[in-house]
Amino acid sequence: MNNCLIKGGRVIDPARNLDEVADVWILDGRIKAVEPNLSPPSDPFLIEAHNQWVCPGLIDIHVHLREPGQEYKEDLESGLTAAVAGGFTAVLAMPNTSPPLDQAPLIAGLRAKAQSLPGARLYLAAAMTRGRLGQELTEYQDLRLAGAKAVTDDGSWVSDSQVMRRVLDYAKVCSLPALSHAQDPLLSKGGAIYEGRMSTRLGLPGIPAQAEEIAVFRDIALVELTGNPVHICHLSTAKAVNLIRAAKAKGLPVTAETAPHYLFLTDEAVGDYDSRAKMNPPLGTIEDQKALREGLLDGTITIIASDHAPHSSLEKEVEFIEAAFGIIGLETSLPLILELTREINLTPSLLVELMSRNPAKLLGLPGGTLTPGGPADITVIDPELEFVYEAAKGYSKSRNTPFEGRKFKGRAVLTLVEGEIRYRYPTLAS
Amino acid sequence: MYSENLAWPKDLIDLDGLSAAHLNAILDAADAFREVSEREIKKVPTLRGKLVVLFFHENSTRTRLSFEIAAKRLSADTLAIASSGSSMAKGETLLDTAKNIEAMAPDALVIRHAAAGAPSFLAKRLRCPVLNAGDGAHAHPTQALLDLLTIRRHKAQIAGLKVAIIGDIAHSRVARSNMIGLKTLGAKIAVAGPPSMMARGLAEEYGAAVFHRPEPALEGADVVIMLRIQLERQSGQLFPGAREYARVYGLNKTRLALAKPEALILHPGPVNQGVEMTPEVYQCPQSLILEQVTNGVAARMALLYLLVDNPEKPKGLSL
Ligand SMILES: [Zn+2]
């Protein structure tokens, strides 16, 4: 029986409009009560959280865990462990594995395996189309019954508008959110970085911002046509932020996420052909970065997800044009957003909305709040704890990050899944 | 030979790290080496016992030969690694190549590579100086230096000259390195080509005036650099075809008349005669395309001399 009291922390639960010092009592894996100065009858295990934030468990809805097929980059165990170390109690893994997750047994098999693993909860997105080829729909009902929480062809856009129209229709029928990697594949074909001064300077083929804009525009048009929702993954440009804002103003059911790296880096990070800054969509300009930050503050972008994309040196320590897209992010996502709370008017409560409440709402997951009766998925954050990030000391199998060596202030120090301590920052006294 | 003691970078990846003083010092040294090329015995002992590895991952007989002659005239040993026939063809990675080259302990590496950034990738992993002989659409600094040398030998000074660069700017390493060098030395740059062959931010990045027709770029130009068109790869995509390109952008007598009467004509070669320029223009006295080849050897000698570890260097040039 698990009986535990997190004492004296700043409890931040925007779902209940709560931001005050209180105790959180956990009993049998559930939240029993959240009130100041609780004194439960039976002698609970005490966790002192003075000067720390006690939040509903963070949820990262865009990670690549590489299993099955590329376990040398990451697997469920390493990925889910990195997740809890970064403060995430649950993740949504993308289906662009090999083979891609386009059939129910694949989903069921991974879920079964994750049951016995120690890290974060694993949720899975299934492929939107067979083989992720953008042509024929997968069996959404079957996939949902096997446990899929969303459909997406992430990594590719479903560029056939007729197919995407059917996807949105059918996903709605099966109550699965449709997540779109919005990028025109022909306009971005062959591109390595954002098309701008940096691509000119380095002589690299560019990906124009319009590749995202065109795709987002088309997706929104199909939402208007079908009346069904779409969620846009990893928004990276000012142009796309404007489109989402306008669509929301019209009342269309469009949501969007962005990734921490777009909020902190620009194409300048590529520097002297540093493939650790090569990602897709590519890092844009400072104007893009500003627009994304504004988008978070005005509610245009409601979710932050890491797009954790592990690659080994085999894919990264090569000619820049040959290098794989993507960076790891599970262990830097929260520290970066904590940094943002000090840079712009992003309140701790908004952070919890962006990284816990809204992700849970989008996917219909338990959690996202500390409401009594709900699962005790809890992230305790020390906003003042300073540390230097070293990927080699992290839990991911891969080290492809442009944030290597960055000095951070603030991180998760305790991660509980269903009331069980799944991660504790080493220096934290018990 | 040089009035000041300049600090030299380890590698020559592009011209962007070099000041006007550096560029002039290279050109001064190249002028001196041109004189060596005109001697009865065209060889100096400067790099005797040094090994210069020539790694050409992309075919380029002209540039490879030019570097090879330059190294040999400095008495260095050369070793050529070509992409076909070597382990490169068997799927060796660039990282493997770097390790193997390091094991050979060369005194300099000259690299030509199809991928932009490959020379700086190697430069970060090798102790010896790396000289970029052209990487993708990124940089071709020795070509730019030989162009600057050619211009300087015919004009009193480069500062203030109007230089027109016409052709595929977006995919041209020659154009990029030239723009950097010309900007550093104070020339006015005008580029022209179809919009599909223009990169973004040329004005901001290089101070270039950008035109989509050749005429305004040619007007009053002191120097005209025509770029090579990749007929095989680009026809039908970036421009409708060779004939159409020649009509709109090719350098003929009529267009050349827009430039200053004594304007110099340069081309990195090989020229598609009848496309980039008419045979008549190619053969006219202002065309310095063959002199560029001669100057190429001198410029590369100068670079090897300046960058390869050499105890004589601090004393200045003694040929
Ligand atoms: Zn994606």
Summarize the structure.
Chain A is 29% helix and 25% strand. Chain A has 430 residues and is an alpha/beta fold.
Report on the architecture of this protein.
The complex is a heterodimer of chains A (430) and B (319). Chain A is built from 12 helices and 18 strands. Chain A is α/β, with parallel strands linked by helices. Chain A has 2 domains: 3-54 and 374-428, Roll (Urease, subunit C, domain 1); 57-363, Metal-dependent hydrolases (TIM Barrel). In chain A, strands 1, 2, 3, 4, 5, 16, 17 and 18 form an 8-stranded mixed beta sheet that branches. Chain B has 2 domains: 20-139 and 294-317, Aspartate/ornithine carbamoyltransferase (Rossmann fold), CATH 3.40.50; 141-288, Rossmann fold. In chain B, 39% of the residues lie in helices and 14% in strands. In chain B, the strands form 2 sheets. Chain B has a 5-stranded parallel beta sheet with strand order 7-6-5-8-9. In chain B, strands 2-1-3-4 form a 4-stranded parallel beta sheet. In chain B, helix 1 (20-37) packs across helix 13 and helix 2 packs across helix 13. Chain B starts with 19 loop residues before the first helix and ends in a 12-residue tail after the last helix. The structure holds zinc ion (ZN).
| Helical content of chain A (DSSP H or I, runs of 4+) | 25-40%
- The count of strands of chain A amounts to 18
Category by helix and strand content of chain B: alpha/beta
Count of DSSP E strands of chain B? 9
Supply the number of helical segments of chain A: 12
**What is the quaternary state of this protein?**
heterodimer
| Rg calculated over all Cα atoms of chain B | 19 Å
Strand proportion of chain B: 5-15%
CATH topology of the largest domain in chain A: TIM Barrel
Could you list the spans of chain A in which at least 5 consecutive residues all have pLDDT below 50? none
CATH architecture of the largest domain in chain A: Alpha-Beta Barrel
Work out the strand percent of chain A: 15-25%
